[in-house]
């Protein structure tokens, strides 16, 4: 029998007994029904599964659920406010056409939130460098960078 873990996900405390080899992405998607963290590669190459763990962007396909015990995990579902208002980063992606098919969007948005928390005024080059671990299959990088810089401006205000 596996050990019980307690983790706060999107503000809610969750206790569960995932198998020792359960990935955080699998735990979120299959046990909690939070499917916003997309699994595109299972090898830490694409970034579609990024979530925030204690405010830091993490590829959830490379972290075990047990490693998240005692942490605060934020998924794309938990980024918006309780009243349904979008986070400034989500608004900027919408307003600046920073998404196309949408598969990479949750990972891009959460990675960008981490970037802007560390660097409130990133240059285009800094944004592009930060996103090297996030792949957009539609090649929408221009508008993704534009979205992140627009959101950073709003978040600084």
Short description:
This protein is an alpha+beta fold. It is built from six helices and five strands. The protein has a five-stranded mixed sheet with strand order 2-1-5-3-4.
CATH superfamily of the largest domain: Beta-grasp domain
CATH class of the largest domain: Alpha Beta
What order do the helices and strands follow?
A: EEHEEEHHHHH
Mean pLDDT: 96
Number of helices: 6
Structural class: alpha+beta
Characteristic terms for this protein:
DNA polymerase, domain 1; 5-stranded mixed beta sheet; 157 residues; 36% helix; 2 domains; alpha+beta; Ubiquitin-like (UB roll); single chain
Descriptive notes:
- It is a single chain.
- The chain folds into two domains: 5-79, Ubiquitin-like (UB roll), CATH 3.10.20; 88-156, [2Fe-2S]-binding domain (DNA polymerase, domain 1, Orthogonal Bundle), CATH 1.10.150.
- It is an alpha+beta fold and 157 residues long.
- Helices cover 36% and strands 13% of the residues.
- The radius of gyration is 15 Å and the shape is globular.
- It has helices at residues 24-31, 76-79, 88-95, 105-118, 124-130, 141-156; strands spanning 5-9, 12-16, 50-53, 56-59, 72-74.
- The chain has a five-stranded mixed beta sheet with strand order 2-1-5-3-4.
- The mean pLDDT is 96.
């Amino acid at each position: 029998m596996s050990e019980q873990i307690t983790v706060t996900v999107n503000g809610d405390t969750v206790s569960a007994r995932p198998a020792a080899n359960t990935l955080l992405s699998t735990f979120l998607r299959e046990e909690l029904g939070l499917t916003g963290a997309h699994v595109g590669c299972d090898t830490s190459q694409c970034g579609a599964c990024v979530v925030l763990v204690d405010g830091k962007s993490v590829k959830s396909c490379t972290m075990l659920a047990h490693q998240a015990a005692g942490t605060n995990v934020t998924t794309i579902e938990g980024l918006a406010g309780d009243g349904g208002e979008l986070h400034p980063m989500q608004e900027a992606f919408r307003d600046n056409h920073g998404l196309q098919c949408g598969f990479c969007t949750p990972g891009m948005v959460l990675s960008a939130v981490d970037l802007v928390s560390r660097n409130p005024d990133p240059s285009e080059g800094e944004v592009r460098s930060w996103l090297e671990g996030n792949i957009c299959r539609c090649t929408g990088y221009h508008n993704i960078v534009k979205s992140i810089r627009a959101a950073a401006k709003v978040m600084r205000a």
